[in-house]
Specification:
By secondary structure, the protein is α/β, with parallel strands linked by helices. The protein contains eleven helices and twelve strands. Strand 2 and strand 3 form a beta hairpin. The structure holds 5'-O-[(R)-(carboxyoxy)(hydroxy)phosphoryl]adenosine and zinc ion. The site of zinc ion (ZN) has 5 residues, from helix 4.
Amino acid sequence: MRLLAIETSCDETSAAVVCDGAVLSNVVFSQIKLHAEYGGVVPELATREHLRNLLPVARAALSEADLRVDQIDAVAATQGPGLPAALMIGFKVAQSFAFALRKPFLGVNHHEAHLYSPWITGTPPRAGFAVFEPNISLIVSGGHTMLVHVEGELKHRVLGGTIDDAAGECFDKVAKLIGLPYPGGPELDKLAAQGNPRAFDFPRPLLNEANDDFSFSGLKTSVRYFLRDHPHLLADAQGLRDLCASTQAAIVQVLVTKTMRAAKRLGVRCVTASGGVTCNSGLRSELAAACAKHGFTLRLAEKSLCTDNAAMIGILAERKLLAGHGPAGSDAEVNVGWALA
Ligand code: KG4
Ligand code: ZN
């Protein structure tokens, strides 16, 4: 099946072509530089950018896959959750393609698609459904932090999530406090590499609670108060590196400890992670160390597939269509707040 997939839920305009589990093309146009000026994603600007860029991005994805649009067998798009107008553009364009081509169309949940991105590897990238095994999946981005028990293909149960800020939001807000440009997560990661993670003892929210939930707003506030009480740190280069390393250590310890605990409790042998924060070097190395210690196989999404992309949407949609899900009718609408169950 040659499937064209579209993703526009936030600030990446992306189109991909997948065929029988292989990613033939995956074009991602990131709007990050545009939003950096405003210190965060501006929904109205995101909408206009998707409108401007989606058709060229879709054309590029088809051209890279060496296919004409009439050679496509099915179309898919992110149905939710996400920014309302941004979602509507990708969803309705994809639905219209399918309508014009008289081909099946399927809308998929953005987070469910993240669950499969760690399984897409190799050159050209291909989904490893043949080696798929039940796992605990950590989805960790600027908008979401959740732990999911993936019991089998297309079968999952959300165990917990953040009750306030997402981990990426915490990285970005702490980075902003010390004057790093948006999005601050990657910048903070770089400084943390040269700092002492034990220099300052920041809280590890919900670390010892017997649940799979997260909370990061208190950690951000405690860094803010710490800087208020130690303003000289802002002019101390090594002090700032230590602050970054200590903040990162607190976030990473909570994410890794709770992921390991869930994996042990549910008896899986595999742990996976995806979402923008999975690019964090501390998270990648600590997850690797913890999985090695506890005997879990670790599958981290490749860095290019950690952030939002249409390849993961296409891989999931193709699997779902083959498994008999859908297709969606021409009256299907976006589901802005579609929470994964
Ligand atoms: O998945 P993503 O592109 O978009 C959302 O759905 O939010 O994730 C973006 C988030 C931002 O908060 C960004 O700062 C964070 O991922 N991020 C990182 C790193 N790279 C991206 N956070 C910490 N360390 C990194 N290396
Ligand atoms: Zn995402």
